[in-house]
Write a structure and sequence with these properties.
heterodimer; A: 744 residues; alpha+beta; five-stranded mixed sheet; 19 helices; 32 strands; 27% helix; B: alpha+beta; five-stranded antiparallel sheet; 13 helices; 12 strands
Chain lengths: 744, 324
């Protein structure tokens, strides 16, 4: 770890005092507000929208429908920016810009839509039925492309001779990101330059997308994201509100702010794909996996946005050593908003099913669930047939999680309790259980190209410049620490510039837990270059060899007792500053860089009321060398909490007959509250992955969420002997299982 | 949202003059304002009752407790006198909503809030309760809906936690209008909606609650148990309130009221009768808990509410028995 390992965020004070500026905070003179008219039907042809009354309303500056906007292809050609065929409840039909929110709302209410309902299908598990209405007229079926098939070995032969097999079907729901800050932007057009303050995980992708949509040179678009109130993957692509804010700004000549309301955020700004996964595992009597077979169905919604990368099949193919693996994934369209990446997309869903099935296998074999996993670890990437960059990382995660939890001691946080795990009285009403799950993840590695400048300025302060963005994870703090460490200068003297395309340095989208492994080595290289140039300058100033210069962070000392201050050295050179340049590193092509983790959970279940209390979660994620333990712990707390929601309370409630989402709000869509928190322990692994990059860094953001739901579901099984295979595990699901007598 | 005017009368009589069919009383606004924003209410005028001198506090007269209409849920939650004498009230307040909402929401508004049925609240559907023809919940997603009286035109449940406790306490509601003052047992405040009256309460459009009065001739032991799908900020899947009086250790009287199971708070008379006949012991409580679901008929997605109703009735009865 670095010297600054436990340092609080450099922007902590700005955030808690409200000075940190988010896209929603930007106000300039003459700014208009904007709002969207959404389809109230899941599938309909819009014959016309009467805009006359809305246009006449005082204070209205623009009313655009598909007709007025003109063709602006969207969703990769699958629809238009404003559509005259609505394919989900919430699809965007028109946009209004006006002097105030109140006028916008009034104008939207005056828009009269004449539409003709079409047949709809919102249930992904019914979308392939022969009589299901087609989401896109003219397509052969609702399946997107061909079934994605993977096979190694001979699964059927291996299953036929396996000593033990487990077969089960699991489902996971559409989970909504519900970031605190909604999607959107404030855009300004001065006739030459488009400037947009955007809530995004990728200022460069948004810049390119705006330029393309508005037919502007990329060089005349500037995108700024100073701070962002949560993205979780949903803000890694360009979304309609951002483009529409820019279109309205160019058409009205006024700055325009278009931010989604919570209803729009829930319906039309992405969600985790719903899945159904049928899993077959075969093992020998010692618990060695001989076959893994997974039949996967993924609901994509009406359109694809790019950046879904929902690799539900990933865990089946990579996590355990197994010679015979087969996955088949069908992705289907429904009359539902588009899915988009959500914190470890695909792996969160796939890991729930696989790690539940492994737990079922452990029960069938009567082998301790962690021991069963130990017997199936792999040190190679079996898909690409390469060694893992850190072959013992998952074993280390298993050990750290088990030790910290006290798994081998029974893992009981309350040993005097009458609800000890494994020692449950079958008649007891409140029963305690513990569960385990492991995971891997394709993300967490660097995504070059990316660049950094580190500039020592005449007064000795340091500016770090990059083209990345801080999406709330603490990128500013991390990069300042990396630069401080390499320069040997106090972090207080360092300012990190990011989140503005005007800085001119490229960086990739902040997604896939790639920001630290991409940007930290770039900043480190730039700082090292600046440091070396600085020492050269100091040696010359002191008139000695570089090897003799001792640098304290403020002063250069020569063994003979002479010394020079930093500012004096800088004053002596032209142009009184030193600039180092660095670039992101690629990992060696000979290894496969992946990340891993392990989670232990303890729960208490009341079989009479269905109440599930998560007592504690221990999470051991492998992110290579830790840079800041405080920020890492924040990521663990956040990821585990999002996992608690996925496990126990978060799901879209859809009436498939009507084709509408019934809980597109924060009242009925239940994200965990502070009262739902449990003890969350970060069992730090801190194992540098030197093959990933020279700093040994990997990313962390997504890892803590991945194995939480299966660990909790497995703990519930341990407590009450009920295997709940459908998420979330609500009181209704638990009590229905109790009533079905599935063995409490 | 349609524009409306805002009036701030400074006396109860002024407020009466200003109320009418589309001129509505405004207290904490924690239900009214979201309904206006969702287009479920379109008043022409809000009549703010907070400056009329309506009582806003809890007054303890020994055997009689008055809750002023403007008393906030937060005040009920924190009142030490209530915690001693009528502990189910602060227990119910504490489990309602969030601290921010409880600081704002009034007891009167809490009692007359509209159902949280997601079809009723949805911008995208019609429903009988908001003037339409059918009830989409009956054959739809009804996991939060009624398990009693499924033949009624609406299967939404009344969302108030405190209503159940006050019905169990047999509180008296004081109402005021131009036509004067009237009182009624709180049980009569609630009524199943009908074609002619698509509302859950008998409060008239020009009328408002001024006070809730709780008379307890003898000390009571009370409990409120609530099941939610997360630990806070959720309406009750099922809530059970019990108010009991004991003669030494012997049960003298008991009223058990469930919320989240019917259009209005529902007394569990079958359970009460078992306990009054047989007293309180482990077996009678178990039988009373089982009897809580007598007459219930779940919809397609809410059978689990029968299990909850039984479990919470048992838990509440055990609590009051242990604390007698």
């Amino acid at each position: 770890m670095l010297r600054e390992a436990g340092r609080p965020r450099v922007d902590a004070v700005a955030k808690v005092t409200g000075r940190a500026r988010y896209a929603a905070d930007v106000h300039v003179a003459g700014q208009l507000e904007a709002g969207l008219l959404r389809s109230r039907r899941p599938h309909a042809t819009v014959r016309s929208i009467d805009v006359a009354a809305a246009r006449r309303l005082p204070g209205v500056h623009a009313v655009l429908t598909a007709a007025e906007l003109g063709e602006m292809s969207w969703y990769d050609g699958q629809s238009s920016m404003l559509t005259d065929v609505a394919r989900f409840t919430g699809d965007e039909l028109a946009v209004v810009a006006a002097e105030s929110h109140a006028i916008v709302d009034e104008a939207l209410a005056l828009l009269h839509v004449d539409d003709e309902p079409l047949g709809h299908v919102t249930d992904p598990f019914a979308a392939l039925d022969p009589d299901a209405p087609l989401v896109h007229d003219g397509e052969q079926s609702n399946q997107l492309g061909d079934t994605d098939r993977y096979q190694r070995g001979d699964v059927d032969a291996a299953l036929a001779v396996a000593d033990v097999t487990v077969t089960a079907t699991y489902t996971t729901p559409a989970q909504i990101h519900h970031a605190l800050e909604s999607h959107g932007a404030m855009a300004m057009w001065d006739g030459q330059m488009l400037t947009a303050y955007v809530s995004t995980q990728s200022i460069h992708d948004v810049r390119d997308g705006l330029a393309e949509a508005l037919h502007l040179p990329v060089s005349r678009v500037r995108v700024i994201t100073e701070h962002m109130g949560g993205g979780f993957g949903a803000k890694q692509v360009v979304w309609k509100p951002t483009v529409l804010a820019a279109v309205l700004a160019t058409r009205t000549g006024r700055p325009v702010r278009l931010l989604l309301d919570r209803h729009g955020e829930a319906l039309a700004a992405g969600h985790r794909n719903a899945t159904r996964q049928t899993v077959r595992l075969g093992a020998d009597a010692d618990g060695r996996l001989v076959a893994i077979d997974a039949d996967l169905l993924v609901g994509a919604g009406a359109y694809t946005v790019g950046g879904e990368s929902s690799a539900v099949e990933g865990p089946y193919q990579y996590l355990y050593r197994c010679a015979n693996v087969r996955t088949a994934k069908a992705t289907v369209r429904t009359n539902h908003g588009p899915a988009v990446a959500f914190r470890a997309p695909g792996y969160v869903e796939g890991t729930f099913a696989l790690e539940s099935a492994i737990d079922e296998l452990a029960v069938a074999l009567a082998i301790d669930p962690i021991e069963l996993r130990r017997r199936n670890l792999t040190n190679v990437d079996q898909v690409d047939d390469k060694p893992l960059s850190s072959p013992d990382a998952l074993a280390t995660c298993l050990r750290r999680a088990a030790e910290t939890f006290g798994w081998d001691d029974g893992g009981d946080s309350d040993s005097d309790s009458d609800t000890d795990p494994g020692d449950n009285d079958a008649a007891a009403r409140r029963r305690r259980g513990r569960g385990f799950a492991a995971h891997d993840w394709v993300g967490g590695k660097s995504h070059p190209p990316a660049f950094a400048h580190v500039a020592l300025t005449p007064d000795g302060s340091v500016q770090v410049v990059t083209g990345t963005q801080d999406i709330g994870t603490g990128t500013r703090t991390v990069l300042a620490a990396v630069a401080a460490d390499a320069l040997g200068i106090d972090v207080e003297r360092i300012t990190v510039a990011l989140g503005d395309t005007a800085h001119g340095l490229h960086a990739p989208v902040s997604a896939g837990s790639s920001t630290v492994p991409t940007m930290a080595p770039a900043v480190h290289a730039a700082a090292v270059e600046a440091h070396d140039a600085l020492l050269d300058a100091a040696a010359e100033h002191l008139g000695v060899g570089v090897a003799d210069v001792k640098w304290t962070g403020t002063t250069f000392h020569h063994p003979d007792g002479t010394a020079a201050e930093l500012v004096d050295v800088l004053a002596a050179i032209e142009p009184r500053r030193i600039i180092g340049f660095g670039r992101a590193e690629d990992a060696s092509a000979d290894v496969s860089v992946r990340t891993f983790g392990a989670v232990c959970a303890e729960v208490v279940v009341d079989v009479d009321t269905g109440e599930i209390t998560v007592v504690r979660v221990v999470c051991a994620p492998d992110c290579g060398r830790l840079i800041n333990s405080l920020l890492a712990e924040s990521q663990v707390i956040g990821g585990v909490t999002q996992g608690l929601g996925f496990a126990l309370s978060e799901h879209e409630v859809i009436d498939h007959r009507l084709g509408i989402v019934l809980n597109a709000n924060l009242e009925d869509y239940l994200v965990p509250t502070m009262a739902d928190r449990c003890e969350i322990v970060h069992a730090a692994v801190n194992r540098p992955d030197e093959a990933a990059n020279s700093l040994g860094n990997k990313g962390l953001g997504e890892l803590p969420m991945i194995a939480v739901a299966p660990a909790i579901a497995n703990a519930i099984y341990d407590a009450v002997g009920l295997r709940i295979r459908d998420l979330p595990i609500t009181r209704r699901r638990l009590l229905d299982a109790v009533a079905a007598g599935a063995t409490p | 949202m349609k524009p409306f005017t805002y009036q701030r009368p400074t006396s109860v009589d002024d407020a009466c003059q200003q109320l009418g069919p589309s001129r509505v009383a405004y207290g904490g606004g924690t239900d009214l304002l979201p309904r206006i924003k969702a287009g479920l209410a379109a008043p022409s005028q809000l009549v703010d009752l907070k400056h009329t001198g309506l009582p806003d506090r809890i007054v303890d007269h020994g055997h009689c407790t008055q809750l002023g209409a403007l008393t906030t849920l937060a005040a009920i939650e924190r009142d030490t006198g209530l915690a001693d004498r009528l502990s189910a009230l602060p227990a119910a307040a504490r489990q309602a909503a969030t601290p921010q909402i409880r600081n704002r929401a009034t007891i009167a508004g809490n009692l007359v809030q509209r159902p949280r049925c997601w079809y009723y609240r949805s911008e995208e559907t019609d429903c009988w309760l908001k003037g339409g023809t059918g009830c989409p919940a009956r054959e739809g997603r009804n996991e939060h809906h009624a398990i009693f009286d499924r033949d009624r035109p609406c299967v939404a449940v009344h969302p108030s936690d405190l209503a159940g406790v006050l019905v169990a306490l047999d509180a008296i509601v004081h109402l005021h209008s131009n036509r004067g003052h009237r009182t009624m047992p709180i049980g009569e405040l609630y009524t199943a909606p009908t074609d002619e009256h698509r509302a859950e309460t008998t409060v008239r459009p020009d009328e408002f609650i001024t006070e809730i009065e709780i008379v307890t001739r003898r000390p009571v032991v009370s409990s409120y148990r609530k099941a939610m799908d997360r630990a806070a900020w959720a309406f009750a899947l099922v809530g059970v309130a019990v108010v009991a009086t004991f003669d030494d250790d012997r049960l003298d009287d008991v009223r058990i009221v469930a919320t989240g199971v019917a259009n209005t708070p529902r007394r569990l008379t079958a359970s009460e009768e078992i306990l009054l006949a047989d007293g309180v012991d482990e077996r009678s409580i178990e039988r009373a808990a089982t009897a809580a679901t007598v007459g219930s008929e779940p919809l397609s997605h809410n059978r689990y509410k029968q299990q909850l109703l039984t479990a919470l009735t048992r838990d509440a009865m055990i609590e009051v028995t242990d604390r007698r």
